[in-house]
Amino acid sequence: MKLESAEAMSMASRHPEAVPKEELVRFEGVSKSFGALQAVHGVSLSVAEGEFITLVGPSGCGKSTLLNMTAGLFEPTEGRVTYRGELVRPYNRKVGYMTQSDHLLHWRTVERNIAVPLEIARMPRPQIRARVEELLELVGLAGFGASYPGELSGGMRKRCALARLLAYDPETLLFDEPFAALDAQLRLKMQMEIRRIVAKLNKTVLFVTHDLDEAVALADRCVVFAGRPGTIKEVLDIPLPRERDLFGIRHNADYVGMTARLWDEMAPAAAQCGG
Amino acid sequence: MMILSRFAILAALLAFWEIASGRLIQEYLVSKPSKIAETFLDWVMDGSIFFHAGITAIEALAGFVLGALAGMVLGMVLGRAERLAELLNPFIMAFYSIPKIALAPLFIIWFGIGIEMKILLTGTIVFFLVFLNTYTGVRSVSPELINILRLMGANEGDALRKVVLPSAIVWVFTGLRLSVPYAMIGAIVGEMIAANRGLGYLLSHASSQFNTAGVFAALAAIIAMSVLMNTAVSVLAHAAMPWEKARQNREIAI
Fold first, then answer.
1. Nearest residue on chain B to A167, judged by CA atoms?
2. CB atoms within 10 A of CB A270
3. Comparison of pLDDT for A262 and B69, the residue scoring more
4. Which residues of A touch B (CB under 8 A)?
5. Which residue of chain A is at minimal alpha-carbon distance from B143?
6. What is the Cα B94 distance to its own chain's centre?
7. Are residues A88 and A120 in the same domain?
8. Residue A71 lies in a domain
9. What residue numbers bound the domain in which B185 lies?
10. Structural domain of residue A137, as residue ranges?
11. Total domains in the fold of chain A
């Protein structure tokens, strides 16, 4: 009986579309130009609540542009971007954004960095302290609250930025190559943390990367971009269980097959984009 | 160890000076340390050095504070108001390009030869240094960071208080640190042009009487005051920016 239900659960998680979930973000024929340069062309994509989507493609193919439009930092030149059915307007506060640069306030300690969104929300001090303590624990920074970012290693700074991002509990997390600057081991560790935390807090994620392994390892669905302007080449369902061991996954046949396929797809696109 | 070595170098220089004076170089050109010390002590004894140094200190400090405050405020305002900055840019650059000392005659007509004129001269010099640094600091705040805060729900006030002002502080202090020697220039040159008191006056007065020892004694007093002001700004900077110290303690990764 127990076994059966576990099986059913894992089946459900293998096929997220089998369980009807509310649509969160929707791109409808979205194009975006900056002057004469077209960054994105004719992108349509629907993101369901709780999905982990990776956007992969060579640098400069408009992936970040889609994140910026989801955040409402600017509007598409053509098409619509909606969030929960409503047109996205400047500063979509339902989302949190984390970029390659951690953007910590180096004049504030780790604690006070994490407290920034809580201060903005005018949360009372004792509550802020409790919440920050909880977040430090969650991202594995307990005991480093009083340090300045300048004293921390790259990985710890990422953890701090992540804690700050989670502090105000945004529904959707936008990541723009957050771990690009980390070494391979640290990146793997942070990837595991992200999967764990996102699953625990049931967040929806749009994660931009140019690392093909990362794109497959993290995703429920992987959106492959090509060309200049950026267009969606393919959307891949990643047939890996929701609870996955990112370390052991390297030997998983599905994983190996998916990454190999991505490699083959990306080779011509990479040549086209020319870095 | 470092301090001992420095004292050794200083002692060697002074000893060479003392011996060379009157033997290798004519004494009226370079005086000698013992005579300079004597003159300095005389001024300390009759209190005149404190009087003159006090005048110069007031001028330099008042000019420094006024110029720095004006520079900070205008730098912050123009740093945030892009259009206004663009509009005023040619005027600011034109004013900036004047050697500030050349304004001294005008300030004398306006304020006479009292300390007001030196304060204004010093203030004008310091203003530009602090203004330009603050402006650059405010403009260099990452728009990405501001956007991240906006997504957290921050309004313009939050962004200003939490990001713009603190990140501009580093630049403000760079401006302040640069300003210290210039504040001294303003005060001293102002006194040399027109005054009957202050270290600049002491200096030019000694010079006009071919009192070389007096000139060097006045220079020593000026150096002492500059060092004091520099130290004060450094102490202030450390107190205002504790994170900078944390950063220095970290090993460098290139």
1. B152
2. 17
3. B69
4. 71, 73, 91-93, 95-97, 99, 101, 103, 105-108, 116-117, 119-121, 147-151, 168, 170
5. A103
6. 22
7. no
8. yes
9. 32-237
10. 103-170
11. 2
